[in-house]
Design a protein that fits this description.
- InterPro entries: DUF2788.
- This is DUF2788 domain-containing protein.
- Keywords: Membrane, Transmembrane, Transmembrane helix.
- The chain has one domain.
- It has two helices and no strands.
- The model has no long low-confidence stretch (mean pLDDT 93).
Length: 66
């Protein structure tokens, strides 16, 4: 295993962990602030939009070979 492959695998693993950890933080924030069903959905929608944006950027970079 070379350094590039290790870096790619580590990024995927740690990035997935970071996204899950942010989900736990958002869930805790929604519970502590008593956001309700609509507020919780809004918080997770914003988090999901950020994750989708990052994935789209990654896919576009791979397609365009920048």
């Amino acid at each position: 295993m070379n350094e590039a492959m290790f870096s790619q695998i580590a990024m995927l693993v740690f990035l997935t962990g970071l996204i899950v950890w942010m989900g736990v933080i958002v869930w805790d924030l929604a519970k502590k602030s008593q956001a309700g069903k609509f507020g919780t959905i809004a918080l997770f929608t914003v988090l999901g939009a950020g994750v989708v944006g990052f994935i789209v950027k990654t896919v576009l970079v791979e397609i365009m070979q920048i």
